[in-house]
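User: Fold this; tokens only.

Assistant: Input:
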Amino acid sequence: MFGYATDETDAYMPAPIYYANKLAKQLGDLQHQSVFLGPDGKTQVSIEYENDHVKRIDSIVISTMHKEYVTTDELNKLIREEVIDRVIPDNLIDKNTKFYINPSGSFIVGGSFGDSGTTGRKIVCDSYGGMGRIGGGCFSSKDPSKVDRTGAYYCRYVAKNIVANGYAKKCEIQVSYAIGQEEPLSIYVNTFDTGNEEDIYKLIANNFSFRVNDMINELDLRKPIYKYTAAYGHFGRDEFSWEKIKEI
């Protein structure tokens, strides 16, 4: 399992998935309010970096289900004004930023009627949008006794606290377990040359426990809280316990 955090956004999330999730949430809110849109949709943001810092947004993709009578021009205007312009900071958009709104054309049939398969949960967009590495197991459908979920949440919790407390500008935590064993087999820290990893190992040992029951208890995971992870990502959202910041 992996956890990742970076200081490039106020949620300590990579900028591409951070803005994609914000766009998806704004789109979802609009879909509930508008008579022109249906419930299905997806978002994608491509960002240009310079010297490891966010420079600009190169492209934004938004696809949304809509009523049959809605024209392309109407849809473009609605999504640009009510979704993109309400979410994306002006300084990240320039004359060369490209907008792809329903790039495949009409999107009238959605959900499992329009696109059904056996891929399962998309762990990349549930986590860090590919910026941080991911483990082999998805989160959704698993209870907290499964380290696929609890371990991934706790790794994010540790990584975020390392960054939020100023010990690194970005941090990735990797942990592995054997089935039936409480203690992890390995813990690995990577700060991408932005922090002192030897000191961070000591910080982790003094402030965090990767024992399975300790992780569950510290994050209070034995509660019906998981419905809200079904959309807009599992990380970078203050309502979840694995996003809390403590002094270390």
